[in-house]
Amino acid sequence: MFEDFLYLLRSSGLKVSLTEWMSLMEALDKGLHGSSFTGFYYLCRCLLVKSEADFDRFDRVFLEYFRDVPFQQEVSQELMDWLNRPDVLNDYANWDEEQALKNMGLSEEEIERMLKERMQEQNEEHNGGSYWVGTHGMSTFGNSGLSPKGIRVGGESMYHRAFRVAGERKFRDFRRDNTLDTRQFQVALRRLRQFSGLVDLPPTEFDVDNTIKDTADQGGVLQVRYKRPRENTVKVLLLMDSGGSMDYYSQLCSSLFQAVSKSGHFKDLKVFYFHNCVYGRLYKDPMLWTRESVLTDWVLSNLPGDWKVIFVGDAQMAPYELLGGYYGRNNTGDGPQCGLDWLKRFKSRYTNVVWLNPSERPVWGDYWTQTYDAIARVFPMFPLTVEGLEEAMKKLLAR
Question: Angle CA(251)–CA(170)–CA(262) in degrees, nearest 5?
Fold first, then answer.
């Protein structure tokens, strides 16, 4: 069954083994696709694709092979037509502090569930308000609104606060073909290696220059010389903001992550993730699974103060997340309770800390600039560009 699909996947560069293909056939025989076309798509992707970097390629092959099969879109065309209205006036948009706090308290899973319920209930266009899928207002779904958290449906990105875009394919951000950006970042990161000092090791490295010099001084009698090896002593702690508004910069952050991961410039490297701000836990995976996390106190206690610390994030969130009153899903209940206190602990623990920001300072009001400015007062902040990274590396090496 679907042998042509297998050959098309292989000819498109996806390395699907016969074992994986037979596993798919067995899963279909057991009905694990739920007798639905969407279930079949996810089952194929789960069993045949080995890396999220290939999701985009798999999607294109899947759509090509099954182009004549009708399937239900996540968001109906009628709803999209209601939402794609750039001519709607901004008179609907009014900031509601109480509603913003309520929206921030919702989990992403709750918002996903509520969106499905609203799309089943809604039968007309809505603009403004806080309940329906619409434009402007304080609803957690729609576009052009003021909610600090939610899902964008239709429209264009304005404030980069949505944690997901409904009906949009985002897999291209994970592809590995952004070689040029990665190389540029790698060149910038080499500055950390250039200033690594000599360590107290025995002379085991062949010294070409002094061997030639001493041999010439001895009238051609070979005099082999050795020198102490130059070892990189730089240790880097990379902390990256994941999800929400940072999804907009995923390709740029992917380039930086690849450059850091593939770099041989560091003696040691540790990478952790957080959402918006550091709280009581840091995560080993960008999906922020609690089972793959460590206590922030553990990091602060076990990584000495000579580590170079690099934060990557847009420094934009609701002020109460950073300045107090919001404890977040990744707090432990012990120690500092607001994000700014946690950041100050990093500042006092590590001598060399920088913050790389893919976003410029917000221009849409004082409310959204508070966190950006507060973090910039704690850490030296540099733009996430090649030039900005070079300046940040100089700052990390400052005595």
Answer: 35
Q: Tell me: the pLDDT tens digits for 59-109?
A: 888 888 887 766 556 566 666 666 676 666 555 567 777 887 788 778 888
Instruction: Specify whether the CB–CB gap between 273 and 282 falls below 8 A.
Output: yes
Q: 3-state class of 135 per DSSP?
A: strand
State the Cα–Cα distance between residues 267 and 278, nearest whole angstrom: 25
Residue 212, pLDDT above cutoff 80: yes
Tokens 């041999």 identify what position? 215
User: What is the C-alpha separation between 353 and 395, in angstroms, rounded?
Assistant: 8
* The pLDDT of residue 172: 46
* Residues of the chain above pLDDT 90, percent: 22
Which CATH architecture is the domain 183-193+232-396 placed in?
Answer: 3-Layer(aba) Sandwich (3.40)
Q: How far is CA 79 from CA 89, 131, 347, in A?
A: 18, 15, 48
Identify the CA nearest to 108 among candidates 73, 156, 149: 149
Cα pseudo-dihedral 14, 17, 21, 27, rounded to 10 = -100
* Beta-carbon contacts of residue 252 (< 8 Å; ≥ 6 apart): 181, 358, 384
What does the alpha-carbon distance between residue 355 and residue 378 come to, in Å, rounded to a whole number? Answer: 9
Which stretch of DSSP H or E encloses residue 283?
A: strand 281-283
Where do the domains of the chain lie? Answer: 3-65, 77-168, 183-193+232-396, 197-227
Closest CA to 300 of 321, 322, 270: 270
Whether the Cβ atoms of residue 9 and residue 61 lie closer than 8 Å to each other:
yes
Whether the predicted model's global pTM rises above the 0.85 cut: no
Q: Cβ-count burial of 375 within 10 angstroms (0-12 exposed, 13-18 middle, 19+ buried)?
A: buried
* Contact yes or no for 53/175 (Cβ under 8 A): yes
Which residue's entry shows tokens 């990379």?
A: 238
The phi and psi torsions of 269 (rounded to 5 degrees) equal: -145, 130
Residue pointed to by tokens 């910039």: 376
